[in-house]
Amino acid sequence: MRTYRQPGTVLTDHQFSVPLDHGRPGGEQIEVFAREVVAAGKADHADTLPWLVFLQGGPGFAAQRPVGKSTWLARALDDYRVLLLDQRGTGRSTRATARSLAQRGTAAAQARYLAHFRADSIVLDCELIRRQLCGERPWSVLGQSFGGFCTVSYLSFAPHGMAEALITGGLPGLGSHAEAVYRITYGLCADRCAAHYERYPGDIQAAQAIARQLTAHDVRLPDGSRLTVKRFQSIGGMLGGSAGSHELHYLLEDPWDGDGGLSDSFLSDIADRTGFARAPLYAVLHESCYAQGTATRWAAHRVREEFPAFDPAPAVAGDAPLLFTGEMVYPWMVDLDPALLPLRDAAHLLAEREGWPPLYDPSRLAANEVPVAAAVYHDDMYVPAALSLRTAASISGLRTWVTNEWEHEGLRISGGKVLDRLIAMNRGEV
């Protein structure tokens, strides 16, 4: 362990060994990293504080790297000793990247390895870590987005390890296959695009002009990969944030260079928003986080055909606005993105994989006794409120707070207000 200080906090780094396959505890081991954060004024009696483990959104993203009492931590550190977990495969845990996975050999071997990086395995990692840090005492769990999915898995398979659960923008559809999710989220994306163009009507022509440029020319991003119209459309994920429409407008208002082509700064921005070098697992495992039983078979790609308004051809012709997509991952992404190209065959095998184990236990959730408070964002573009509320009604004792004051990133940008509300709900104070 290594301990160090930041303004107002004391941090301790922890490293844990866990089985790659929890069904074979004596088999291959991987490392999971976690960072403990305690308020500086409480560091001398940290052992008396209850633990709160944070499960990050994703899949495939490491926990936040705090600087002092940043974002929601300021509220959490009033009451808890916080553990920021780098979920398996991310951050300082044993990384799963194109280079590390190449050591596994064949695409089939890579896919078998990656099948162990879903919520069910993350929950069992948490349980091993909890026992090392807390003994048999349960701890509190805070799950944001995909971390909320993991929290519901935790309630399904190891509720004895939880003193309480706090979920923000992360109540999944318990029995919803990926297709059902995308049939809702495509509609939400279309609504967000319509609202954006109503706010910034000049962006209709701006986006159409960019689409025409990409259709007529071979435009390359800084990493040498091609920027296609469909790849340009995928920047729509930014519309799910509270400031996303305004950020999109600024991106579209000045994309051109003096020679009539797209500027280097614009292309650099697009590369940052459409590339997966920082989180390849997000692309490779995204649809698998919905998979229970059957294969996903690139569900977002297939369901898109049911929404012809997302066809870019009319926009290129100037006959319709260009619609942007959201958190969808498509098979062409693993062909275009250099960070994903080495994982292409493994990604296709994962998309065709059958027999995924269940991620949730409806009967156990119906008998739940763990206090649970969940923020459901009414206009959430990524985790549909309709599915979240159906799930909320299926978990005994769960209390929901439905709000349109915040978007999906409310935990991060609310200055502790979202977390404070959830804590108060579990305590019966509101």
Characterization of the model:
Strands 1-2-3-5-4-6-7-8-9 form a nine-stranded mixed sheet, sandwiched between helices. The protein is globular and about 65 Å long. 39% of the residues lie in helices and 15% in strands. The protein has helices at residues 73-79, 98-102, 107-114, 119-134, 146-157, 178-199, 202-216, 229-233, 244-253, 264-274, 280-285, 299-304, 313-316, 333-336, 344-351, 362-366, 385-392, 410-413, 417-426, and strands at 2-6, 9-19, 29-39, 51-55, 81-86, 139-144, 162-168, 372-377, 398-403. The model has no long low-confidence stretch (mean pLDDT 96). The protein folds into two domains: 2-175 and 360-426, Alpha/Beta hydrolase fold, catalytic domain (Rossmann fold, 3-Layer(aba) Sandwich), CATH 3.40.50; 178-351, no CATH class. It has 430 residues and is α/β, with parallel strands linked by helices. 46% of the residues are buried.
Distance between the termini: 39 Å
Please compute the radius of gyration using only Cα atoms. Answer: 22 Å
Mean pLDDT: 96
CATH architecture of the largest domain: 3-Layer(aba) Sandwich
Shape from CA axes?
A: globular
Q: How many structural domains are formed by the residues?
A: 2
Could you please say which CATH topology of the largest domain applies here?
Rossmann fold
